[in-house]
Amino acid sequence: MAFADQFISSSTPGAAPNLDPRIQARDKLIVALDVPDSASALPLIDRLEDTCQWFKVGLELFIATGPSLVQTIIARGHSVFLDLKLHDIPNTVAGAVRSAASMGVRMLTVHAAGGPTMLGAAREALDAVSNPLTLLAVTVLTSMDSAEMNATGIDRTATDQVTLLARMGVAAGIRGFVCSPQEVAILRKLAGPAGVLVIPGIRPAGAPVGDQKRIATPGDALTQGASYLVVGRPITQAQEPAKAADAILREMAEAIRQLQSA
User: pTM surpassing 0.90?
Assistant: First the structure.
């Protein structure tokens, strides 16, 4: 399978590939709603309604709003990536996976550092649900560099640690991963063409880096083999969020055109 074909096949799980670069780009952009409450999130969703399909709900927002905001987003026809980074005993994580699936969430994160038994229990939990979601194993947070890892007692480089945890995830039946742009090519080989790679740390050229330490532009990440790109502050903190999202979508579409013509 050619790389361009692998890229096209890594679009929305279960959906037929669409060759229109703009539509593909819209299917691959996830807007991170990293805000504290519904009063902050809903106006953003309103402004991005006609531009973006996917929204990420993380710990801060989910703890503040519970399932109600997730259900509201889904009822409005959008797809939700629930980023809770589950890390607990296997039985507890399996139950949480089933609960997330029952809400209609499309993607959910678990920490690969939870170990093979926990990852296996998370994957097996999907066998009992009628509307399975895509599990994503988080390997190394994009906010961590070698110094941060060494402080936690890990002597490997970030790339070596990502590879070790991803191999463990694949062995447990996980085919979706969250990783930094620098590890996309490595994980694409491990996960195969059908693997789902979700990449945070995306910053358009000239955008502030913030607390992300391993970053890339949208075009670079897609060229490396990313399935989805997570973008937060460059969109949500822009004066005109829809215009900022549209600029990123144009950059993504251009990268997709180049891949299709390769």
Answer: no
